[in-house]
Design goal:
Elements lengths: L10 H6 L1 H14 L6 E8 L5 E10 L2 E9 L8 H15 L4 E7 L4 H6 L3 E10 L2 E9 L3
Parallel strand pairs: 3-4
Antiparallel strand pairs: 1-2, 2-3, 4-6, 5-6
Length: 142
């Protein structure tokens, strides 16, 4: 018996989404059909049009998964991060999401997310040097 050869996926293979489609079909046999993964991409611009913040997330399995939330240093503490997060949560709810989850490093923003109603559900100590990585979640139900 010969073993399959492992190689980098081609651009066409990635673009086709075939692996994701196959995984979804497998998942459907357990949890039924659910909407495809949908992105949420938000940018905040100042009066000159410069990007001063942004959020990248996806909605999958009826969960909002925040991947990146960034606010330019001079804009921090003015509510922009909260506004971006609320906007993403609202869009996710409109897409059928009932909860949100994210990961953040100890030096990033766990306290910020706690203020936004997120709770820590897991932690990996020493993930980067002596810093932890935390998984946080929040219900989006009223």
């Amino acid at each position: 018996m010969s073993f399959p050869v492992i190689a980098s996926a081609t651009e066409e293979e990635v673009r086709s989404g075939e692996i994701g489609k196959r995984l979804r079909q497998f998942n459907y046999s357990f949890v039924g059909e659910y909407p495809e993964v949908r992105p949420i991409r938000l940018n905040a611009r100042d009066a000159a049009g410069k990007v001063v913040g942004g959020l990248r997330a996806v909605v999958a399995f009826h969960w909002l998964r925040v991947e990146v939330l960034w606010v330019d240093e001079p804009m921090r503490g003015q509510g922009l991060g909260s506004r971006l997060l609320r906007e993403a949560e609202g869009a996710a709810k409109d897409m059928g999401a009932h909860s949100a989850a994210l990961e953040t490093f100890e030096w990033q923003a766990p306290a910020f997310y706690t203020k936004q109603g997120y709770e820590e559900v897991a932690r990996i100590d020493g993930y980067v040097q002596n810093f932890y990585l935390t998984l946080m979640k929040k219900s989006l139900r009223a």
